[in-house]
Write a structure and sequence with these properties.
25% strand, 6 strands
Length: 83
């Protein structure tokens, strides 16, 4: 939904907390890292070596020059939608 709203852009990257892993944002909202492609949760789980993982709290995005957790972007959107 963040892609659909234009908050994050296809072709740009999400990255891990240490900025060592970069995943490309696809037009359909999925992400791609090396051979893995899927949801933010699925790809984070694969990287972390677990069956499931909360991608909202794993991935960061460069938003207007600031490093922002994508969950923060989502929370701002939810708050704005309720106003």
């Amino acid at each position: 939904s963040l892609v659909e709203l234009g908050i994050i852009e296809p072709g740009k990257s999400l990255f891990d907390p240490k900025k060592k892993i970069n995943a490309k944002i696809m037009a359909d909202g999925s992400i791609k890292y090396k051979e893995s492609e899927g949801s933010i949760h699925k790809v984070a789980a694969k990287i972390m070596g677990t069956e499931s993982y909360n991608g909202w709290t794993y991935w960061y995005y460069n938003f207007n020059g600031s490093t922002v957790l994508i969950d923060s972007l989502r929370q701002k959107f939810i708050a704005a939608k309720q106003v």
